Amino acid sequence: MSHHFPTHPIPDGFADAHIKPADYEAMYERSITDRDGFFADMATEFLTWDKPWDAVCSFDFVKGEASWFAGGKLNVSVNCIDRHLPERAEQTAIIWEGDDPKDSRAISYTELKDEVCRLANALRARGVGKGDRVCLYMPMVPEAAIAMLACTRIGAVHTIVFGGFSPEALKDRIQSAECTAVITSDEGLRGGKAVPLKANVDKSLTDCPSVTTCIVVRRTDAEVNMLDGRDVYYDEITATQSTDCEPESMDSEDPLFILYTSGSTGKPKGVLHTTAGYLLQASMSFKYVFDYREGEVYWCTADVGWVTGHSYIVYGPLAVGATTLMFEGVPTYPDAGRCWDVVDKHQVSTFYTAPTAIRALQGKGDSFVTRSSRSSLRILGTVGEPINPEAWEWYFHTVGEGRCPIVDTWWQTETGAHMITPLPGATNMKPGAASMPFFGVEPVLLAEDGSEIEGAGAGYLAIKSSWPSQIRSVYGDHQRMVDTYFSNYPGYYFTGDGATRDEDGYYWITGRVDDVLNVSGHRMGTAEVESAVVLHDSIAEAAVVGFPHDIKGQGIYCYVTPMEGVEPNDALKAELVQLCVEEIGPIAKPDVIQWAPGLPKTRSGKIMRRLLRKIAENELDSLGDTSTLADPGVVDELISNRNA
Ligand code: ATP
Ligand code: MG
Fold it and tell me: Which controlled-vocabulary keywords does the entry list (predicted)?
C-alpha cells in the first residue's frame, strides 16, 4: 500500500469491455442478493445441459457442505468441444509451442474432438469408466489436455501430478487417489533437458497395485521399459478407435478431478472438485477477468499440474471456445526473451503468469523484453503469490507499455477459480492489490476472536457464502476438509491468508496467516517488507520471516537475492534497512539480512517461508516435508551461508 505507487486508471481501449464499471456493480450486487437468479442465468448462458437443475445452490458452512445445480446433468467435454463445432470446426483450439522454438502445432476444435474421443474409447476399452481415478503425469503436450478431456468424456476423475515431482511424490498421490490408470510420456522436455517421466512412473508403480493400465505418449522416442499387459503406447491404442464417443451424462455434483495443493504450508491435500459449478465459474471468470474476445490467442504459462493450468489453460478457455496456447518449455530457454518471442510469434493477446516468473525476467534486464514488439498484447495477468508493487510496475510499463490492464487474481486450488481480482474494463488498478471480489464471492476480514471487521482494516481473509467452484472434499478424508477450512471460524470458509481492505474496498493479500510477523505487538505481512526491499534497483527478490527476539518478541529476518551482476556488500545492506524504515516505518527495520543466491520454492514457484523460518530459528533438525521443493540444494546453501 505504498504511496510511491498511485492508482492507475483503466487504460484506453476498454470502453467496450464485457464488464464496465456500472455492470460490475449491478452484477455483483445481484450475484449476492439474488444468488440463485443470477447463477441460473449464468448457467444458462455459459453451459449446455443434458438436463436442467432442480435447485441452484444450497450450502451449510458450519458443516462445510455445498451443492450447486443439483439434479442437473451435463458433460464437460461436450461443453468444451462438441457444442462449439457448428461454428468453430476449423478454429484453432490449442496452439502448442514446444520447448524448442522451432516446434509448434495448431489443433482445431474438430481435431481435438477426434483425439479426445479416440482416447476416451481406448480408456473405456481398458475398463476405465465413470468414477475411476486416472493419474496424469505428463509434460506440457497437447495430449495432456486431450487426456483430461477424455477422462471427462467417460466420467473418469483425473488427478494430475506435476511432471517435476519425484517418483516418491507421484506414488503418494497415486495411492492416495487409488488410481487404476496412469497416463504419462516416455520423457518430457524442458529447457533442453529430458525428464525421465516413464522411468519415474516405473519406480512409483512398484508400490501401486491398483494401477492396471499405463498409457505412454511418445514425446522424445526414448527407449523405455514397457511392462507386458500393463503398459501400452498411446498412438497404438488410439489408432484403431473411433472418432466418436458417447459422452457420459454426469450429475452436476459428480466428481470432476482431484488435485493436490502446491504444498507450500505442509502436506498436500487432495482437493476434490465437482462438475457443473466448477465449469461455470472457470468459464465465467475466464471470459470476464481476461475480457476474452472472439478469435484472440490467450496464453497462460502455468503447468497443467497446477490448478491454474486446469482452470485457465484447459477448462475455462475451451468452454468459452477460445484459442489457448500451451507452452512446453521454460521462460528462460533458449534465453530470457522467450516469452515475448512467443507472444510475437503467435500474436498473443493475453499473457497470464506468476510473480516468480515476472521477478526472474525483470532480474535479467529489459533488453530481452524490448527486442520484441508485443503489440498484440492487450491484457496481462498474475497469480500465485502477492506481487510486489515494484514488479507490478515493471510488468505494466516495460512489458505492457502502459496499455494493458493487469489482473492480479487471488484464488486457491480449493476455490477452483478466481475469487478476488480486478476486471480489465471495470477496475482502476492499485499495484499489488488483488482488488475486488468476483461475482458471487463474499470476502470478509475476521479478527482473532472471529468477529467480522467492518470498513478499512486488516485480518484473516475468509469467505462468507458458497461460490460455484468451491472445494467439495479432501479426497479420502472429508473430515480433513472440514477441519482445515470450516472449523477455525464456524460458518466461514477460512482461506489461510491474511489481507487488508482499504478505504475504497480494495483487498490486499498480505501473505499466509502462518507467516504474519508480530514485531513488538505490530502485525505485518511478509509481503509488505519484501516489497520494500525489492524496491531497490539492485535487488531481484526477497523473502522475509520472523524469528524469536528477546525484546521485540519477533525479529525480522530477510533473505535477499541481488540482481544478476550485483556484488552484495554491507553498504547495500544498510540501504535496504533504510528502505524498509522509509517505506513502512522503524518497526519494519530488518534485524538480519542474509544474502541468498536462491530461495527455496515449491515446484510451482512459491517461496516456502516455512523452511526459511526454520533456518532463521536455527531449527535445522525439523525442516519437515521438503518433497515439494523445486531444488532442495538451495536449502543446504542457505544453511551454510547462515553459519558463514
Ligand atoms: P498449500 O495449500 O499446500 O500450502 P498453496 O497454498 O501454495 O499450497 P495453491 O492453492 O496453489 O497452493 O495456492 C494458493 C495460495 O497462493 C493462496 O492461498 C495465496 O496464499 C497465494 N496466492 C495466489 N494468488 C495470489 C495473489 N494474486 N495474490 C496473493 N497471493 C496469492
Ligand atoms: Mg493453500
Answer: Acetylation, ATP-binding, Ligase, Magnesium, Metal-binding, Nucleotide-binding
User: Residues annotated as binding site?
Assistant: 190-193, 308, 384-386, 408-413, 497, 512, 520, 523, 534, 536, 539
Helix axes 276-289, 35-46, angle to 10 degrees: 80
pLDDT < 70: residue spans in the chain = 1-4, 264-266, 644
**Residues contacting residue 368 through CB under 8 Å, at least 6 positions apart:** 335, 336, 337, 340, 361
Binding residues for Mg(2+): 534, 536, 539
Three cell numbers, residue 382: 498474475
244 phi/psi in degrees, rounded to 5: -120, 145
Q: Beta-carbon neighbour count of residue 225 at 10 Å?
A: 10
Report which protein residue has its CA nearest ligand 1's atom 28.
386
Q: Which helix (H) or strand (E) holds 23?
A: helix 21-33
Nearest CA to ligand 1 atom 1: 263
Tell me if 367 sits within 8 A of 397, measured CB to CB.
Answer: no
**Within 10 A of 330 (CB to CB), how many other CB atoms are there?**
17
Atom of ligand 1 nearest to the CA of 269: 3
DSSP-assigned states of every residue in 103-116: -EEEEEHHHHHHHH
Angle at 176 between CA 173 and CA 180, to 5 degrees: 85
Block residue for cell numbers 468477529: 451
- CB-based burial of residue 83 (10 Å sphere; 0-12 exposed, 13-18 middle, 19+ buried)? middle
Distance 385 CA to ligand 1 centre (A): 6
Q: At 547, which amino acid appears?
A: F
Contacts of 491 (CB under 8 A, 6+ apart): 61, 62, 464
Burial of 479 (0-12, 13-18, 19+ CB in 10 A): exposed
User: Cα(644)–Cα(640) distance, rounded to whole angstroms?
Assistant: 6
The sign of the dihedral angle between the CA atoms of 548, 554, 555, 560 is positive
Beta bridge partners of 190: 193
255 vs 275: CA distance, rounded Å? 6
- Tell me the per-residue pLDDT of 297-346, one tens digit each, with 9 for 90 and over: 999 999 999 999 999 999 999 999 999 999 999 999 999 999 999 999 99
Interatomic CA distance for residues 492 and 484, integer angstroms: 11
pLDDT at 644: 66
Query: By three-state DSSP, how is residue 219 classified?
Result: coil
DSSP 513: G
DSSP string, 173-192: HHHHHT-SEEEEES-EEETT
623, 626, 631, 634 alpha-carbon torsion, rounded to 10°? 0
**In ligand 1, which atom is closest to the CA atom of 387?**
28
Grid cell, residue 470, equals 468451491
